[in-house]
């Protein structure tokens, strides 16, 4: 029977729940990091990614509304995260669209939900459902720990390739540079919220499970991008999937 873990034990368990399920392992990510995608493939990524991360402030707003007033620091973090997404400097989605346009697509195509794949639609729907229906600490575990905390490790592998292989400018890849820094901070703050407020065995177990599911969802979404847009032009045999 599960027992209540101390903070160190729980932190390790959360990290283990995500371990081995990083979106870095998806063939789309492997192809990107090795410079084997075309700009057209990257444009399809941007058109999909917009509909996953574009509503992120909305997801956080639902969590914020469900968070008890006594969770002062958690509410402050959620509010700050929403502000950074939408108002603190350039809107993050505008930076993503700038990159998309550099890949050859248009704002209109990016913003059109008809251009996202069914798997992307499923990820977006899951994020909304978790944010609206789950205990706020469980929702933070899903969206901030399970999903957002992965971003720096993913973009650190992909961003150098964008400059060195594809020749994108610093301005065109600002979306990635920004999230390497901001999501490392957000991910750690998410961990701290979960460690502090998941104070029952049930909550700890729910957080562990949903972290695992969140990581699986992002891996599934990224893998689907390969099969939907890349596989016919770049078979798995041409990728080093052991990397």
TrEMBL record:
Q: Which domain of life is it from?
A: Bacteria
Q: Would the keyword Transferase be found if you checked this record's keyword annotation?
A: no
A Pfam family recorded for this sequence: Haem_oxygenas_2
Q: Which GO terms describe its molecular function?
A: oxidoreductase activity
Q: Which UniProt keywords apply?
A: Oxidoreductase
Report if keyword Oxidoreductase is assigned: yes
User: Do you know which PANTHER family this protein is assigned to?
Assistant: 4-AMINOBENZOATE SYNTHASE (PTHR40279:SF3), PQQC-LIKE PROTEIN (PTHR40279)
Q: What is this protein called?
A: Iron-containing redox enzyme family protein
